[in-house]
Amino acid sequence: MKRKLLALTLSALLLPAAGSALAQAKGKISGDVVKIGVLTDMSGVYSDLGGQGSVVAAQMAIDDFKAKYKPTFKIELVSADHQNKADVGSNKIREWYDTQGVDMVTDVLNSAVALAVAKVTTEKNKIMLNAGAASTRITNEDCAPNNVVHYVYDTYALANGPGKAVTKLGKDTWFLLTADYAFGHSLEKDTTNAVIANGGKVVGNVRHPLNASDFSSFLLQAQASKAKVVGLANAGGDTINSIKAANEFGLTKNQTLVGLLTTVVDIHALGLQTTQGMMFTEGFYWNLNPETREWSRRFFAKHKKMPNMLPAGAYSAVTHYLKAVQATGTDDTATVMKKMKDTPINDFFAKNGKIRDDGRMVHDMLLVEVKKPSESKEPWDYYNIKQVIPGDQAFQPMAASRCPAVLAAKKK
Amino acid sequence: MTEIFGVPIQALAGQLMLGLVNGSFYAMLSLGLAVIFGMLNIINFAHGALYMMGAIFTWMFMEYLGIGYWWSLVLAPISVGLIGIAIERLLLQWLYKLDHLYGLLLTFGLALILEGFFRHLYGVAGQPYSIPDELSGAINLGFMFLPKYRAWIIVASLTVCLVTWYVIEKTRLGAYLRAATENPALTQAFGINVPLMVMLTYGFGVGLAGLAGVLAAPATQVGPLMGSNLIITVFAVVVIGGMGSILGSILTGLGLGLIEGLTKVFYPEASATVVFIIMAIVLMFRPAGLFGREK
Known about the structure:
The structure holds two protein chains of two kinds.
Chain A: H1 2-27, E1 33-40, H2 52-69, E2 74-81, H3 86-99, E3 104-107, H4 111-123, E4 127-130, E5 148-150, H5 155-168, E6 173-179, H6 182-197, E7 201-208, H7 216-224, E8 229-233, H8 236-248, H9 251-254, E9 256-259, H10 264-270, H11 272-275, E10 279-282, H12 290-303, H13 309-328, H14 333-342, E11 354-355, E12 361-362, E13 365-370, E14 383-389, H15 391-394, H16 404-411
Chain B: E1 3-4, E2 7-8, H1 9-40, H2 47-65, H3 69-90, H4 100-122, E3 138-140, E4 145-147, H5 148-170, H6 172-182, H7 184-189, H8 194-216, H9 226-241, H10 246-266, H11 274-285
Helix pairs in contact in B: 1-5, 1-8, 1-9, 1-10, 2-3, 2-4, 2-8, 2-9, 3-8, 5-6, 9-10, 9-11
């Protein structure tokens, strides 16, 4: 009798636990709210790349998702400025995960901040769909494939497109102008590898301080090198000012300028007169097809700027995440990550996109050339598409992965 | 070809020329700071923001009113000067009796507000401004193709610097100004309107920053952050030259531009730091700066 009572009590105690575990797997959303965070640079050098644009895009993704799929759970959006500081970023993300119940964070541009946020995200077992940072470390040395997806682009993809295409055009000697910090070094290394692999040669380089106010003397050195191509391994304001000075000093007459991380926002800031003929890789172009145009025009109506790959990627990432939550009925990290990896991504941003085991989302990249002013038919009509680089060629192959989790799986 | 440390002498001459261009900006900006510090005892941290406004006004005049570069060269500095006068009358004049720190904090706050305002309006990527037709193209100097516009920057800024120096050191007006700095109460007793002079001095000082902004507009991207990228270096220039020394700030501005230019050839990674290394060394041996007098 006593034993029976004990068994009964025990099973009574255990049942709800088993029940709730089941419920979580089947359909439980923590706090009944799916909370998405956009952590980005709102005021500094990169704020025109992502910034408020990414917040607008994430909100659009949520609104569209609600309208189309009528989810039973609530969705909320929070956003914050990390000021391009790794410590500010990791404090903010800790606060979001610990006290505000944020489930997923996106944008997170700036590689230094992204790496810090990835660490906290792994520790708290949440999800980061990174749409803004460039460093390949995110899916290699510092990979966290159970929590972190690198969604839009990386330095390998940026370097590989022009490195291959431009070198193959017979422009096989390169000079690199590098921003002197982790991101620039990474881009410089990847570009050098790409150029050499395609039979070219890097004849020299110069490393300039971040936010240098004058680039003319660096460009004069690039000019003196007589290299056929001058590659700009920098970003944002540094790229803009390098391009401007390159024009003033007549460098573009005899040498080809390749901006390794240039987006439509930079071209808009400089104008076609200055940038015509430049070649680079982008992950997205608003004027590619009716689908991209439709979305981009809606974005433009809200933000007054056409999107580059960062906001477009953030929209796609948020949508892909919400679909996975809807399908699995939970915001449990492992379940959602598995679902996201199992589902191919097909939207205006990515065709047959796929999240690999190292956390890299592979999708087609575009090798573009900036139009002449006479070729441009409307405002923001800036690119001729030279080549669509298929995802499996655009990104670093899995065989070359330096991600510990991938290497361990290989050994087994 | 003759070489110095592996760099052809021609290339070196080109780099020195560019150093001189940058030095011209340093000279004009630090001159304004020196005049303001000399007369008002205010460490004007808003100088970079006002320089940025000079450039943005140039762009706005063109964009919204169709006013070209040459008119902007006059109108933008005057606009910036008027804003400066408003700042002096409304805010700074209450701080003269207090410690330097208050002026520094106030102007620093102003700089952040101004930058934030233009960032909100136009974003950080900035706006393009093209070189006026008269100054486009380049001159062949034998050792380099110097864009005409860069040559114009050197000529314009040197002229402005020398005129300023002449007015302050050699004319009657300058003598009043210097007297008002030395002993305001006594100068006022001679019937000279000191507060008016102080106000106009501040207006003139920031007008110089505005003029530097106009000169910079076609050479760099016009954006809200262009001032803050430059201002710290300019402060180092002022400290090296000696706070408040007019000739000192002009000469140090040009000299440091040259040194920075050389660093960009031989060890570009240090080009952002070299000015501060020199500053540390100078302060060790001459705490009042190269041309400053110890009070």
